[in-house]
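Our consortium's second objective concerns turning raw sequence data into structural hypotheses that experimental partners can test. To show how far this objective has progressed, the report includes one record in full. It was chosen at random from the queue rather than selected for favorable results. The single chain below, 162 residues long, was entered without modification.
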Amino acid sequence: MFKKIQNTHYTHSTDFDFKTLCVLLHEEKYALAIERIKTLALDIDLKALLFDQCSYTRNIVINNKSYWLGLLNWDKSATTRIHGHPDRAFIYVIKGWLMCKDFDKNPLTKLRSSTLVDGACQYSNGVKGKMDNYIHQISAIESSLSLHFYSDNPARGEIFDF
């Protein structure tokens, strides 16, 4: 049912300071980070991003021991599996419309749904060292581009299936 997600390393065409952006997000200075993301959004060459029809791709900007930063390129109707994250998670929609369904773990129960459109963000702070924080599923209502920041590699997040 779910396709294997394609990953690629993203190289930006300008000298945008991604490390400073990550520090701002890690320190929870979201307003300052969002201003930088808005500047970044003006420079992104969408044609340079990996795209997968009927799915989404991870265009990885930074992946180290301190954090993970990537641009996710979504085709309309692309959906993630229900999954958890490390203690810090931040999503910013650069363009498009995403639906986010949040879940409780025990038992796996849908809590709420929210929509994220151009310029909207969502973040969570959970338990350090756990990979089952902020359990959710994201679906693209339309083709979208979003920036994601995590305090660890999101591919290590726990997967949940009904």
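The partners drew two points from this record. DSSP finds two helices and nine strands in the chain. The chain has one domain: 6-152. Both points have been shared with the crystallography group to help prioritize constructs.
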